[in-house]
Design brief:
By secondary structure, the chain is mainly α. It contains 5 helices and no strands. The protein starts with 6 loop residues before the first helix and ends in a 5-residue tail after the last helix. The chain has one domain: Four Helix Bundle (Hemerythrin (Met), subunit A). The radius of gyration is 14 Å and the shape is elongated. The longest helix is centred in the C-terminal third of the chain and has 23 residues, at 83-105.
Length: 110
């Protein structure tokens, strides 16, 4: 599951503190769950801002697949037309769900 959550890299990035990594992962999962709900509605300025924040968070909680998707979305956030962002919503939702599933099954720390 390293491509979903790279736990070892996350722990190393946080000075080898598994406790801190776990705390940040817990907060990251909460944000992911909120964004999943938000993505069920139309894309607005708040959604764009939250996707941008999620992209930043995905660097600390090393989630390579999600970050790669959000790297493509980030430049589109300044556009007023959300059509291009909407084309990425299914992939974003799928990867967020994969991360949540991995978290709930605790398979990220294997």
């Amino acid at each position: 599951m390293k491509e979903t959550i790279d736990w070892q890299s996350t722990v190393e990035r946080l000075n080898n503190s598994e406790d801190l990594a776990q705390e940040l992962l817990d907060m990251f999962i909460e944000e992911c769950q909120k964004i999943l709900t938000e993505l069920d509605s139309s894309i607005n300025a708040s959604t764009k801002m939250n996707l941008h924040k999620l992209r930043g968070s995905s660097c600390y909680i090393n989630t390579p697949k999600l970050k790669a998707i959000l790297d493509k979305v980030d430049p589109l956030e300044l556009e007023t037309d959300s059509t291009k962002i909407n084309s990425y919503v299914p992939a974003i939702k799928e990867e967020i769900q994969n991360i949540i599933d991995c978290y709930e099954a605790k398979t990220y720390c294997e």
